[in-house]
Amino acid sequence: LCSFISNLENFTILCEKDHKFDLYRYWRQVGSSNLKPAELLINSINESEKQNSIETWSLVANFLQDIGEYDSAEKCARKSMSLAESLKKGDTMALSHSYQGLAYILRLKGDYAGAAPLYERALAITESQPNPNQKDLAQSINSLAILYRMQGKYDKAQPLYERALSIRRTIFGDVHEDIAQSFNSLGCLNQDMGRYPVAESYLLQAIQQREQLLGSNHPDVAMSINNLGGLYLDWSKYNQAEPAYLRAMHIYKNVFGDVHPSVAKTINCLAGLYQEQGKYKRAEEMYKQCIEMKQKLLGPNHPELALTLNDFAVLYARQDNFKEAEKYYQEALQIRLRVLGEKHPDYAQSLKNIASLYQDMKEFNRALPLFQKSLEISTEIFGQKHQDVASACVTLAGCYQLMQRYEDAVPLYERSLRILQELLGNNHADVALALNDMAVLYFKKRDYTKSEELYQRALKTYETVFGLVHPHTAEAIVNMAQFYHSTQKLDKAKKFYEQAIPIFESCHGPDHPKTLRLKQSYKTIV
Q1: How far apart are CA 258 and CA 252, in angstroms?
Q2: At residue 387, does pLDDT exceed 50?
Q3: pTM, full prediction
Q4: Burial code of 354-385, b = ≥16 C-beta within 10 A, e = fewer?
Q5: Which residue, 101, 301, 332, 353, is the most exposed by fewest CB within 10 angstroms?
Q6: What is the distance between the alpha carbons of residues 348 and 108, in angstroms, rounded to a whole number?
């Protein structure tokens, strides 16, 4: 096995034919205490005059990033970049591609500050060509747009996505694989911005074009369908999300077989859907299936495995199974620490999740420093204006609120609301949630006038974004009911309960735990 992997000709053929994960099944058996597989591969390239090339280093970097060996992947990408920079006459496009390859790995590692100048330099090189390849130019623009989207810089990402689409239409016309990619990207961007109908339109166009060009049984078609399922999940259109996820999984299995990372990803999505629907047993079964598959394919130290372990922990936390939730949260945290390091959004998210668990357990002294650390990391990564920073502010404020440290909570809630309004505008679900959280705080402070005003603003925002018959709008109606119930305005409370119950039954079903709890609350005042 050692000599097979060190034979770069065999290795490159396998990578080019997309047998990366077949190779990886053997990869983990090669490692030893003396020499790990990544080191073996890197040493082999260094010792090979023939293979010590920009192309080989780039190919190996791509393989290593796919299997979660980010540090080794970065080393290879830097080797590729160094060789490209050393070319005497300068193959500037090779340099541009090497910048993009390294930037992508840094993006995976959460080093957005390191990735941004590389993407920008790559784009500048491409634009500076006497007759720039328009396809390369559009791809470079698209890559920079993806980074801006991940940084929450939607005002920068959107015009770049639209520019890439315009260039592609000029080259290819209205129907092409690259056009479909642009539609898919714009769909995901608009989903992040809470523009769900616009996102749906783009994703449906991406699916239509990919089916027309590639046939219905292609992984790119499955990817867009899976993205559509994710949109419907965010939109709480659960009855549309499930068939989308199932169709995507069916395509992936037809193409790759039953055991493949893409199949595992869709299983994870389905588990999350069932969790939101309150189908906890079904979700648990799917999470276990997904964990087993990812461990087999990706090994015990991969960010994708950490994602599923984290989601599995959320499922247990929702059922107040704190012991199992902590176990899986800690497993996810340790993988993220080993593979991604402390300065990564996923690690900050893990800290926040464990802190929320301790908070639910009323262990505030354990929760508070983790919330503070999560906010510190998110701010260091993203700066002052990002949705992750706003979210970290809210969770820290919530902890202070439960500890009755209301004056510490107020500025954090206000900071979160300012960030979200600046990034997303006033009509966004996250803005409504921030208004709702502030309403709870002012209720605790016994400022009922301010609390009522904030609850009303939250409800109006949810109605604007989602319409009346929607789970988030229904939750906001319930919050109004509970506010009036608690302030002994029972006629108003009864009115809001009666408005909410049929929406809950329509959205969740009559036997969902949320619906049953709501009916029980209504009975106490009737």
Answers
A1: 8
A2: yes
A3: 0.86
A4: bbbbbbeeeebeebbebbebbbebbbebbeeb
A5: 301
A6: 15
